[in-house]
């Protein structure tokens, strides 16, 4: 049987997708499912890690069925994922010990404040390339270890596993046989030294994270695990955080090439090649990808809310029934009539890095309508 297809898993912030590509790079089939967003307190954003897995598993099957192929025709599986979102689970059962803390979640801002007040901000930036912000995984993991009963002790005993969403998917795909992440995802944790390419003992100590809970860091490109798809064993041969994957997919393969992605948030990445470039304007330095030939890096500007503002219009304000309806509603008025929307629902990212900022609407009058708000929302993106 010819292994002529690649299955790409795109696990995003609001939906899970699977795409089947043929040998020419053409899309043969696509399947997508949204999943629930949980907002238990102001500034908190959570996902059910089991729902992430069930939706991702379901769209895998749907995409293969639409393409009319079997697992035996897959040459490999590649994974790209929402970054920073933090999952902690039991190694013995594979059950999460709590909901996943999403990258948009702001609950650990006070932990960052304390570390900053203690003079550690420059250390984190120097080693990780990141700013000390609740956006990244390290303080989310610390929060889970602090607040889930017995979690830190269990982690120290090796009973728990931490991972970003790529690690969680590979754990499930491999039926618990493989606990890995790639360097692009590891570089988003505040725990990974981008200069040495390893988990950093000093940073682990500052956040009180046991090394035993961490995944092994592997190349972004290369076989790292195997999974069963039907009766076939298929290699998992690629991992990258979604924005780094977009940088590669947009063929920004040489230093100086950049891309901007408009998704749940908006992310500008510039390839800096094998050089780690330190920003003077509060961008972050990050691993773009690591291959056997070496590590490539990028500069990144992160805007936390982009398309998510449209989801809020649909699910929060309920002024549209479907995301596609927003364009017609916004176009029904000539302009926003002085209405401005600042979509800081998850704080502000680069260059402000203000976790306490909140969304605001200005300029409302008695003449303001849902259309003006929709227009202001699109203009805010």
Short key terms for the protein model shown above:
381 residues, alpha+beta, Nucleotidyltransferase, domain 5, 28% strand
CATH class of the largest domain: Alpha Beta
Helix content: 25-40%
Rg, Å, rounded? 21 Å
Count of extended strands: 20
With strands numbered from the N-terminus, the spatial order across the biggest sheet is 3-2-1-5-14-13
Write up this protein.
With 381 residues, this protein is of the alpha+beta class. It has 3 domains: 5-241, Nucleotidyltransferase, domain 5 (2-Layer Sandwich); 257-300, no CATH class; 307-380, ATPase, nucleotide binding domain (Nucleotidyltransferase, domain 5). The protein contains 12 helices and 20 strands. It has helices spanning 49-67, 109-117, 121-128, 137-147, 151-156, 165-173, 183-186, 201-207, 242-249, 308-317, 326-331, 370-380; strands at residues 5-11, 15-21, 27-34, 46-47, 74-81, 87-90, 100-101, 160-163, 180-182, 192-193, 198-199, 216-218, 221-229, 232-241, 258-262, 266-273, 284-291, 294-303, 340-342, 360-362. A 6-stranded mixed sheet has the order 3-2-1-5-14-13. A 4-stranded antiparallel sheet has the order 15-16-18-17. A hairpin with a 2-residue loop joins strand 17 (284-291) and strand 18. The longest helix has 19 residues, at 49-67. The radius of gyration is 21 Å and the shape is globular. The chain starts with a strand and ends with a helix. The model has no long low-confidence stretch (mean pLDDT 95).
